[in-house]
Amino acid sequence: MAMVNNKTHCFTCNKEKITYSCEGCAKEFCLIHLTEHRQILTSELHHITDEYNEFKQRINEQKQNPQNGLLIKQINQWEIES
User: Fold this and answer.
1) How far is CA 8 from CA 20, 34, 38, 39, 68, in A?
2) Which residue, 7, 12, 24, 53, has most beta carbons within 10 Å?
3) pTM of the entire structure?
4) Domain carrying residue 81
């Protein structure tokens, strides 16, 4: 994820330090702030993954409910007749 550069300014603390480039956002971070940046990204990814899994579970539950298929057919028929 990160490659060592010569001393540049850290995006977070704006101090001149040895920095590492985040390939995802192309910003330069000192080691402390690169670690924090990665932790934030990991946390955000976990949140997105959790939301995805919850959404997937709800969709699967709705697919298993036979009444939902009947309601969709009724709506489709109503659209045709309207």
Assistant:
1) 9, 14, 19, 22, 59
2) 12
3) 0.66
4) 51-82
